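Fill-in record for ABC transporter ATP-binding protein.
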Amino acid sequence: MTAAGTAPAATLRAEEVSVALGGRTLVDRVSLEAGAGEVVGLVGPNGAGKSTLLRTFYRALRPTSGRVLLDGEDVWRMPGRRLARRLAAVLQETPGDFELTVYDVVAMGRTPHKRAFAGDDASDRDIISGSLAAADVGGLAEAPFDRLSGGEKQRVLIARALAQRTGTMVLDEPTNHLDLRHQLDALRLVRGLGVTAVVALHDLNLAAAFCDRLCVLDGGRVVAAGAPERVLTPELLAEVYRVDAEVAVHPRTGVPQVTVLADRPDRPF
């Protein structure tokens, strides 16, 4: 369930979004929709345009054409503070090498909810502490952020987004650098919040397990979209990823599981 004080889940939609940089089209007329409370996985090979598309959602990159709509309102026409109260982003990039503690980084998530230069009140501190605990970084609150491991930094950035208390999230490879347990914890957390989420993922099995629908990008275009069991087929994996793979329903989870068949010719050693 969505935590008290969190903005309601919204519908997030890309309408015919294209992005061209340096004379090269990186995203080509992509349309997708994540309904209120739905988790949509954005998958595809390296260079498919996933991160570029997500940047248009949180206004880091303006589309060359097309629109991104949050409950029908163009995000590029919304005041920045109002958008930040409704949409949070977990990025692959991390804050610069400033002398910030983990607590300081997570506290940034409260900025859209306060007047300029206002300090944290009791409610802010409760939200920050709860977000640290939810992301399993409560014990690192006073640690310097720039000295953390990659996985620890990633969990702190997830905690910052949680502290923002939005109803909609955009996550670019949130499991990057995380060990197996924390990968599962991160996606369970997002799934359990009841928020609308668009999540770029490389791991197709995690995407199948935690996403309501998948949108497959290749060469900047949507090549397939729908429920994981409809999208993840050996034919699509061969076409998009250039791999030989089997897809079977896992007997315990009931979700598709992809197994890549790797040829290993005998080699003398």
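KEY FINDING: The two ends are 55 Å apart (CA to CA).
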